[in-house]
Design a protein that fits this description.
The complex is a heterodimer of chains A (about 375) and B (about 120). Chain A has about 375 residues and is α+β, with helices and mostly antiparallel strands. Chain A is built from 8 helices and 20 strands. In chain A, strands 11-12-13-10-4-14 form a 6-stranded mixed sheet. A 6-stranded antiparallel β-barrel of chain A has the order 15-18-17-16-19-20. Chain A has a 5-stranded antiparallel sheet with strand order 6-7-8-5-9, with helices on one face. In chain A, β19 and β20 form a beta hairpin. The relative contact order of chain B is 0.27. Classes of the chains: A alpha+beta (about 375), B alpha+beta (about 120). Chains A and B meet through α2 and α7 of A and β4 and β6 of B.
Chain lengths: ~375, ~120
């Protein structure tokens, strides 16, 4: 399959990015090195090109309330109660209560702006179109940049002073020399920061203006993955998929009280799991030694019973030790429970741990 | 020094062959965070997976370049795996092998041939 190139491809190459295939795109996996980029993002500000992700606008045929009701049939998440200028985490579910995709959606007054995973984009658009019809408008002329880290506000405010007034999950539109920017105060690293949807024509100028600032460095996919893992955030296709339910995944916080009476795809299973507890649960895992436990590592109880599997794992540069997450059978999920992960034929001790591994620093 | 196509370097030290990875390999791997070393006195055959190197992102193997017995491992890597990035051809050697006949090393590349390989 031919790989698609990012609008900022030439810039990544110029910056020394090592380009690799990812979800059909040629993406920078690292520039200076995963460890350095990870630590830079936690200390200052990192610029990520996430233009491979899907952006979709939902424009109501009649009114926003009707659109919200139709969208709510696809997600166990409240759309109707999302105020204008606010963003929320959402989950498209299937009829079996599994997760088709996780996404972010923002109420931008007269429409919703939805950001979906790169690997699910085409299926999501088909699914949304099947249910919402001509209200679905894929965005094909905008890049998406994420600026993450404790100095992200300082940096972006030099270009867009209005971001200083934003709180976590606020969205604004800012008219700039780079075109109208759709900015949300959010991201997927556990850090304070912003995601910025920018017209193709302005993307290069905006990225260069940010990178020219002392605190901003370009960050690749490698560090994006280790940052989101330390933040305890799910990676679609790994920690969540068509077979995992939002309850198993520990995403019940995303299911507002108003939606816990059903009326969405997969509600039978999801409501039953909310009431009775799921058979398996996503947990954080801290290996006791230095060997990382990566995706696929089988987990066993002390008596040798198989109890689960690691779905994401690696080394956490900020933690300074291996970190992982995975699914564990109910009854083995209490914080501190000692399990064993089978790594290259050896069973190594690992403890169930609270997530996130690194506290989030969102500006609420 | 000799080089394998798997980007290992081999250096003869007395009767032993010392094995490490090249600067090129260390750069490709990225930040090394864990090294799993073999047991002493293990008999290994050429092509056996002897060492596991974990970088931030992935695990890779180091293969035994020739048949032999593991006579020493570099314990410093257990506490300081980052040495693999800092000094791959020096302090970050992995293990020493006792081999029957050191002439088996003749099959491997010399410095110039390896430089051509990595272009």
């Amino acid at each position: 399959m031919d790989l698609q190139r990012l609008p900022l491809h030439d810039l990544h190459v110029e910056l020394g990015g090592r380009m690799v295939p990812f979800a059909g795109w040629e993406m920078p996996v690292q520039y200076e090195g995963v460890m350095a980029e990870h630590l830079h993002t936690r200390k200052a500000a990192g610029l990520f090109d996430v233009s491979h992700m899907g952006q979709v606008l939902l424009r109501p045929r009649t009114d926003m309330a009707a659109l919200a009701a139709e969208f709510e049939a696809l997600m166990p998440v409240s759309v109707a109660a999302l105020a204008e200028g606010r963003q929320r985490y959402g989950l498209l579910t299937n009829e079996q209560g599994g997760i088709r995709d996780d996404l972010m959606f923002a109420n931008r007054g007269d429409h919703l702006h939805v950001v979906v995973n790169a690997g699910c984009k085409e299926a999501d658009i088909a699914h949304l179109t099947a249910h919402l019809g001509d209200q679905v408008h894929p965005v094909t002329d905008r890049a998406l940049l994420a600026l993450q880290g404790p100095l992200a506000e300082d940096a972006l405010a030099r270009l867009v002073p209005a971001v200083m007034a934003m709180r976590f999950m606020d969205v604004i539109t800012a008219d700039t020399i780079y075109g109208p920017l759709w900015i949300s105060r959010s991201g997927y690293t556990g850090e304070d920061g912003f995601e910025i949807s920018v017209p193709f024509g302005g993307a290069n100028g905006l990225a260069r203006a940010l990178l020219a600032m002392e605190e901003v460095a370009p960050i690749g996919l490698g560090a994006r993955d280790s940052l989101r893992l330390e933040a305890g955030l799910c990676l679609y296709g790994h920690d969540i998929d068509e077979t995992t339910s939002p309850v198993e995944a520990g995403l019940t916080w995303a299911i507002q009280k108003s939606r816990r009476t059903g009326g969405f795809a997969g509600d039978t299973r999801i409501l039953a799991e909310l009431a009775d507890g799921p058979a398996r649960v996503r947990v954080g895992l801290l290996p006791e030694g230095r060997a990382p436990m990566r995706e696929g590592v089988a987990l066993f109880a002390e008596d040798g019973t198989p109890v689960g599997t690691v779905t994401s794992g690696g080394f956490g540069p900020t933690v300074g030790a291996p970190v992982a997450m995975g699914y564990v059978a109910a009854g083995h999920t209490a914080i501190g429970t000692r399990l064993f992960g089978e790594v290259r034929g050896k069973r190594l001790p690992v403890s169930v741990a609270a997530m996130p591994f690194v506290p989030a620093s969102y500006k609420r | 020094m000799k080089y394998t196509e798997e980007h290992e370097w081999l250096r003869v030290e007395g009767d032993y062959v010392v094995v490490g990875i090249t600067e090129h390999a260390a750069t490709q791997l990225g930040d090394v965070v864990f090294v799993e070393l073999p047991e002493l006195e293990t008999q290994v055959a050429s092509g056996d997976e002897v060492v596991v190197i974990e970088s931030v992102k992935a695990a890779s193997d180091i293969l035994a370049p020739v048949d032999g017995e593991i006579v020493e491992v570099n314990d410093e890597l257990a506490s300081n795996p980052g040495l693999v990035n800092e000094d791959p051809t020096g302090r970050a050697w992995f293990f020493k092998l006792r081999v029957e006949d050191l002439s088996v090393l003749d099959q491997f590349m010399d410095e110039d041939e390896y430089a051509d390989l990595i272009g």
